[in-house]
Amino acid sequence: MNTTVLFLCPHHAAKSVIAEAYFNQLAQQRQLPFRAESAGTEPDDQVSPLVVKLLHEEGIDVSGHQPKRVTTNQLEHAQSIISMGCTADELGIEPERVEMWMDVPPVSQEPQMAQSKIRAHVEALLNELAG
After folding, report:
1. By the 8 A CB rule, do 111 and 14 touch?
2. Measuring CA to CA, which residue among 131, 124, 114 is closest to residue 26?
3. What CATH topology corresponds to 3-130?
4. pLDDT in tens, 6-56
5. What are phi and psi of 78, to 5 degrees?
6. How many CB atoms lie under 10 A from the CB of residue 73?
7. pTM above 0.70?
8. H/E element holding 128?
9. Selection from 82, 76, 130, 88 nearest residue 102 by Cα
10. In the 8-state DSSP scheme, what is residue 78?
11. Residues 67-94: pLDDT tens digits?
12. Exposed, middle or buried, 51 (CB in 10 Å: 0-12/13-18/19+)?
């Protein structure tokens, strides 16, 4: 069975998009049976152009990605929920179901730092899931 990780950020335009892209790319490269989805609580109209550019430079295309609101179904079926700015209260779930990555700076202010923090978190998460 595939493990689904759900990455969340309020606008689903930057942090969660980066996390999903890295997670799915690295899981595929390592041939691990995991996949990620992402969503937000107040989705923007489009993914941040800066995020599209940053990921494009690494060969990842998110230009067609459309920000969307997190669903009850996603929350119920995710094996892991990682949040970068959405609280358990906002999501209507138990706090212990949500892992918070609070050390990721705003992509708009520190793009390279945010990108490297997210990638490091994703790599650690994949190592943990792979056992």
Report:
1. no
2. 124
3. Rossmann fold (3.40.50)
4. 999 999 999 999 999 999 999 999 999 999 999 999 999 999 999 999 999
5. -70, 130
6. 8
7. yes
8. helix 111-130
9. 82
10. -
11. 999 999 999 999 999 999 999 999 999 9
12. buried
Amino acid at 4: T
Angle at 56 between CA 115 and CA 11, to 5 degrees: 55
In the block, which residue shows the tokens 């996603």? Answer: 74
Q: 80 pairs with which residues across the strands?
A: 5
Do strands 80-83 and 98-100 pair parallel, antiparallel, or not at all (unpaired)? Answer: parallel
Residue pair 11/43 in contact by the 8 Å Cβ criterion: yes
Work out the burial of residue 49: count CB atoms within 10 Å of its CB; fewer than 13 is exposed, 13-18 middle, 19 or more buried.
exposed
Segments making up each domain of the chain, as ranges: 3-130
Please, are residues 129 and 32 in contact by the beta-carbon 8 Å criterion?
yes
